[in-house]
Amino acid sequence: MATLRPEPQEVMTVSISFHRSVAAVAALVLSFTASPAAPVTRIVVGPVALSVPDGFKDVAGKTPTIRQEASGIAIEASELPPQALHEFKGPAFLEFLQSLGYTDATYADGGLKRAGPYTYVLADAKGAQGPESRFLLVIGGEGRAAIVTAYAPKSEIANGHASRATIEAVLDTAEVLPAPAAKP
User: Fold this and answer.
1) Which of 7, 48, 65, 120 has the fewest CB atoms within 10 Å distance of its CB?
2) Is the pLDDT of residue 96 over 60?
3) Which of 60, 55, 51, 49 is nearest to 71 (CA)?
4) CB 124: neighbour CB atoms within 10 A?
């Protein structure tokens, strides 16, 4: 008894049609289940203003800090002397971070969608809740400079509650505020 075998071209056509159908169904499902963009709030942290997703709250302490409980992401900002914008570059800055306990510090040139001069460094560090990923941004403006440090426990990044994309989206919006008016 002879068996019928499809021509290779027929198999390829059926295979491509099947894959296109699966892709179309997946796109349709995603269009119904994708959540809308999370609401964003403009918030001031020390000398810096940022746009953050809902859920960030002030944290009491010496350094101005905000934290989102659901993701574990914390962001702190401190004023720096204006010349820091140009001095916090090169191997000396990475060595300085290493002296503070940061590991694997590296410049992430082009990692942010920002205009103007800035320095952006990715590093690891030991935090209160274990290993953390740190994102350090040095920016300037209005005759001032600031360092914004965002961090999240590596466990929260691994389980999907925090992400580099979320942190970088916030850092993209960071801007140094004008200095308060001098008191007479």
Assistant:
1) 7
2) yes
3) 55
4) 16
Q: If you ran DSSP here, which 8-state letter would residue 64 be given?
A: -
Query: How confident is the prediction for the chain on average, in pLDDT?
Result: 82
Helix, strand counts (H, E) of the chain: 5, 10
pLDDT of 83 strictly over 60: yes
Sheet holding 74-80, edge to edge: 56-59, 65-68, 74-80, 144-153, 130-141, 118-127, 103-107
- Sorted by sequence, the CB contacts under 8 Å of residue 10 that are 6+ apart come out as none
DSSP 8-state class, residue 88: S
Taken as a whole, the chain contains a residue count of 184
- Residue showing tokens 């005759």: 143
The phi and psi torsions of 57 (rounded to 5 degrees) equal -130, 150
pLDDT of residue 22: 34
The reported pLDDT for the residue numbered 143 is 87
